[in-house]
Amino acid sequence: MKYIYIISGCIAVCLGTLGIVVPGLPTTPFILLASWCFYKSSPKLRERLLNSFLGKYIRNYERDKGLTIRKKAYIIAFMAAMVGISAGFFIDSTAIRIVVIASAIIGCIVVGFVVPTVNGKDR
């Protein structure tokens, strides 16, 4: 099982990192999944992830146990803006445009309803 967790974690890191630049592909769930996989399999890989540029987001999520409404609103607004720009100006294929928009809708639903909402001051 250790190797399955390691491979799954590496795939999740790749997808999460790709989600930074690909509109509609969520970053946060994949990075949190990678952190969990590495927690189960390799403390060394988890430590590397926590020390990467993504580590701040993982530590904040673990400390707060979720996101504030303000952070969720920012994430959803940014995702919607990037998808709107991409789908409106850069994607010519209707099929790909539909996939990107559908992915964005799923991402917004995940951020809005699956990721826990916490009360507190944004940091």
Describe this structure in words.
- The mean pLDDT is 86.
- Helix 1 (2-21) packs antiparallel against helix 2, helix 2 (28-41) packs antiparallel against helix 3 and helix 5 runs antiparallel to helix 6.
- The protein has helices at residues 2-21, 28-41, 43-50, 55-64, 69-90, 94-114.
- The radius of gyration is 15 Å and the shape is globular.
- It has 123 residues and is mainly α.
- The chain is built from six helices and no strands.
- The termini are far apart.
- It is 77% helix and 0% strand.
Write out key terms for the chains shown:
single chain, 123 residues, mainly alpha
Cα shape:
globular
C-alpha Rg (nearest Å): 15 Å
Write down how many β-strands occur, each being a DSSP E stretch of 2 or more residues: 0
Sequence stretches where pLDDT stays below 50 over 5 or more residues:
none
Oligomer: single chain
Outline:
By secondary structure, this protein is mainly alpha-helical. The chain has helices at residues 2-21, 28-41, 43-50, 55-64, 69-90, 94-114.
